[in-house]
Amino acid sequence: MAHEEILSEQEAIEKDIRSRVAAFEKARGNLIPILQMIQEKQAYLPPEAINTVAAHLEIPVCEVYGVATFYNQFRFHPPGRHPVKVCMGTACHVKAGDVILENFERKLEIREGQTTPDREFSIERVACVGCCALAPVALIGDTVHGHMAPSKVEGLLLRIRIEKEKAEREKVRGER
Amino acid sequence: MMLNILIDDKKIEAEEGKNLLQACLDNGIYIPNLCHVKDMAHPQASCRLCFVEIEGEKKPVPSCSVTVREGMRVKTDTPSVRRLQRSAFHLLLSRHFIECKVCPANRKCELQKIAKFLKVGLKSNYPLLLPKAVLETGKQETDESHPIFNYYPNRCVLCGLCIHVCRTTHGIALLTFAKRGIDTVISFYGEEDVSRLPGDKCLACVNICPVSAITLKSLS
Fold first, then answer.
1. Interface pTM (ipTM) of the complex?
2. Which of A107, A138, A159, B4 would you call most buried, defined as having the most Cβ atoms within 10 angstroms of its Cβ?
3. How many CB contacts within 8 angstroms connect chain A with chain B?
4. Confidence of residue A4 (pLDDT cuts 50, 70, 90)
5. Partner residue facing B190 (CB), from A61, A69, A70
6. Which CATH number applies to A82-175: 3.30.450.40, 3.40.225.10, 3.40.30.10, 2.40.160.10?
C-alpha cells in the first residue's frame, strides 16, 4: 500500500473515532466504555484518541491515561501482523516461560506490550492458552508452538521473515 | 468546640472534627506518616504508617482516618503498633532504591526520619522488588518525559501527595497514578507541551515530595 493511502486511511479512522466519541454523553462514567469502543475499532489506544477522549469528557489527559493503564485490556501500541503471545500460566511458568519471553524480547528488541517499528511483531504475555501438556507454549498469530525452547525462538521468527520475503518476491514476479 | 483527649497519658485539646493524626502532630506528638498533609479533606490512609491503638477498639487503626472524640484514650507506641509500622515501612523500602549519599533528599528525607524514629535501618527485611534492570545495573530508572521535571520511580513511595497538591493548587491534577500493583508509577502523561504548563512558577509537587522523587531537571 502506498504511503498516502495508509495516511488517508488513518485519517478516516481518526475522523470516525472522533464522531463516535462525540456521540457519548459527557459523563465521567462513560470513560471506560469510550476507551473500549476505541480499542475495538483501532485495536489499541493511540495518543490522539486519548486526547480526543479527554477533551470530550473535559478531564485531564493524564487522568484518562491513568485509568487506561490500570486495566490490562487496553494496549498502547498497535498489534503486530504476527502477534507473539507467550504463555505465563502455571505450567508454562514452572517450565520457565519467562525465559522464552525474554528471548523473544531480546531477538525482536522490544519489550512485552510493544510492537516492532515495522509492525511485523508484537509481544504479549498471556495467561493459560489451554495446552499445558505442551508447556512452555508460545503463540505466533494463531499457531501454537509447544515445548518451546530458547533455541527455537530465532528459527520461528526467521521462518516468518523468509515467508514474507518469498511472498513479496512472488508478488513482484506476478506483476511482471 | 475543643475536645479533651488523652494520648500516651498526655492530656491534649483538639478541635472537633479534626482527625487524630493532625491533632497529635499539632500538639508535638509525632506519629510516622507519609501520605497526609494538613487540612486534607479525605485522608488516603495509604502509607499505613500512622497506626495507633485506641481504647475500646480491638485492633490498631490508622490515626489519619479517625476523627477525634471526647475522652478518647490513645496509645501511639504499643508493640503491635510498632510492629505494623515497621512492616509497612520495610514494604515501602522493598521498592525503594537506596543511594542516600547522592540523593537530593539526603538529610531531609522522610524515610530517613521515620527509620530513625522506628529505630530500623534503611535496608528492607523483604526481598527487593525493584525492576530486574535496576538490580542488574545498579542504576535507578529516570522518567525524563516531562520538560521541566524528572521523575524517579524507584525513589517514589507513591504517597500521592504530588497529585493531591496539584489538584488543590490548579483545580485539576496534571499528574496521575499510572499502571497498577507493583508497576504503579506517577505519570505526567499528556503534559509534555510546555506552553500549557504552569512551568517554573509552580513547584508544588517538587516541594511536597517527601523523598525527592520529582526534581527540577535543571538541578539534576
1. 0.86
2. A138
3. 43
4. confident
5. A61
6. 3.40.30.10
